[in-house]
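Fill in residues.
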C-alpha cells in the first residue's frame, strides 16, 4: 500500500491516465509541486501502450501510474504495464460534482487522476487482471447475465399465462414456476386454434426454452466457478455460509494479498464499516453503510442470512444482542462487520478450517 509520502520521496513523476475505448490520455506530473510536465493521447492498443511507455521513459525512470478503469477500459494497459513490472495505483472515475465548473476533457481527466493519487492518504494497487481472479470475474458476469435472463423469461411466461385463453391457462393452473416451464415446453399447436391461441402457445414455448437454456448455462458456469475455487482457495468453502458464488465474489473484490491495506479498509470496500449516526447526547448509534462494492456487500449479506437460519452460534448471538436492546438492523450491521473481519483474516492469512 502506497502513501502520499511514498509518492513524493520514491517517485520522480506521477502519470495520470484517463482511459477510453479507443484512446488513452496521459499526463505527467511532478509529485512535489503537482505541476504538469507533459501530456499525450495514444490509441488503446499494444502499439499505443508501447508509445505511452516510451513517452514515460522520456520524463522519469522512477514513476507511478495512476489509472482510471483498470478493470474495464484500462485493463489492456494495466496488463501491459504489469508485464513490465511498472508501479500502478487504481482510481475511480471522477464524479461530475468534483469537476471544476463542469469542465471536462480527456487531458484534464488525466491530470485529475494524477492529482487525485497525490491527494489521497492511501492509494491501492489494481486488481489482478489475469489468472484465477480474472477467470472468476468473467464467469460471474456470464452467470449473472444468464440468471437475470432466465428470471426475465420466467416472469414473462407467468404474465402471459395469466392473460392466455382459458384452454391454455387451465394447463398451468396451480403449478410452480419450474412446473410451468415443463408444461410450456410440451405445448403443441393445433390447426383448429385461432390466431391468438396459436401465437400464445408459440411464444410460451419459446420463453420456456429460453429459461431452460439460460438456467442450464448458469448451472454450468457455477460448476466451473466451483472447480476454480476448489483448486485456488478451497479454504474459503469451509467458512460457514460461504458457497462457490459467494467465495468467487469475495475473491474478485479482494484480488490478491496486500492489495487492501487493512481489515478496516476491506470493511469500507464491502460497505460494512459502521457509519456514526450520533445526534445531541446520543453517541453510540451507527447506521448501515450504503457505499462500497455492493456485490461484495451482497455476498456478505448472504453469509449473514445463511448463518441466521442454520448456524446455532449466530442464532445465540442474535438472541443475546436482542436482550441487550439492539434492533434487528443494528444486529445485522454488527454481524456483517464480524463476517467481514473473518473473511479478511482468512484471505490474507489462510488457515485450515473445519466447517461447523
Amino acid at each position: 500500500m502506497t502513501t502520499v509520502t511514498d509518492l513524493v520521496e520514491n517517485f520522480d513523476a506521477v502519470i495520470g491516465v484517463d482511459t477510453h475505448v479507443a484512446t488513452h490520455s496521459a499526463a505527467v506530473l511532478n509529485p512535489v509541486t503537482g505541476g504538469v510536465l507533459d501530456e499525450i493521447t495514444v490509441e488503446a492498443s499494444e502499439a499505443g501502450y508501447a508509445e505511452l511507455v516510451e513517452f514515460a521513459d522520456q520524463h522519469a525512470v522512477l514513476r507511478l501510474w495512476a489509472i482510471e478503469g483498470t478493470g474495464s477500459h484500462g485493463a489492456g494497459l494495466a496488463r501491459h504495464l504489469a508485464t513490465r513490472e511498472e508501479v500502478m495505483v487504481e482510481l475511480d472515475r471522477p464524479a461530475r460534482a468534483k469537476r471544476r465548473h463542469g469542465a471536462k476533457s480527456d487531458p484534464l481527466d488525466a491530470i485529475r487522476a494524477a492529482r487525485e493519487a497525490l491527494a489521497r492518504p492511501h492509494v491501492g494497487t489494481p486488481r489482478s487482471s489475469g489468472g484465477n481472479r480474472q477467470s472468476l470475474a468473467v464467469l460471474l458476469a456470464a452467470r449473472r447475465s444468464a440468471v437475470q435472463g432466465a428470471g426475465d423469461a420466467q416472469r414473462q411466461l407467468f404474465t402471459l399465462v395469466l392473460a392466455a385463453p382459458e384452454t391454455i391457462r387451465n394447463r398451468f393452473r396451480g403449478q410452480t414456476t419450474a412446473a410451468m416451464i415443463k408444461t410450456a415446453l410440451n405445448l403443441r399447436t393445433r390447426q383448429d386454434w385461432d390466431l391468438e391461441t396459436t401465437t400464445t402457445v408459440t411464444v410460451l414455448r419459446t420463453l420456456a426454452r429460453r429459461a431452460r437454456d439460460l438456467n442450464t448455462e448458469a448451472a454450468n458456469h457455477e460448476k466451473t466457478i466451483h472447480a476454480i475455487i476448489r483448486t485456488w482457495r478451497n479454504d474459503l468453502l469451509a467458512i460457514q455460509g460461504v458457497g462457490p458464488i459467494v467465495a468467487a465474489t469475495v475473491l474478485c473484490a479482494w484480488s490478491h494479498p496486500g492489495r487492501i491495506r487493512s481489515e478496516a479498509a476491506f470493511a469500507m470496500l464491502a460497505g460494512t464499516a459502521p457509519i456514526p449516526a450520533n445526534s445531541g447526547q446520543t453517541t453510540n448509534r451507527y447506521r448501515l453503510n450504503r457505499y462500497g462494492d455492493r456485490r461484495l456487500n451482497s455476498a456478505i449479506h448472504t453469509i449473514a442470512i445463511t448463518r441466521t437460519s442454520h448456524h446455532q452460534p449466530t442464532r445465540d448471538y442474535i438472541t443475546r444482542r436482542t436482550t441487550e436492546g439492539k434492533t434487528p438492523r443494528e444486529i445485522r450491521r454488527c454481524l456483517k462487520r464480524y463476517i467481514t473481519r473473518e473473511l479478511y483474516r482468512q484471505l490474507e492469512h489462510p488457515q485450515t478450517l473445519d466447517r461447523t
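The chain has 13 helices and nine strands.
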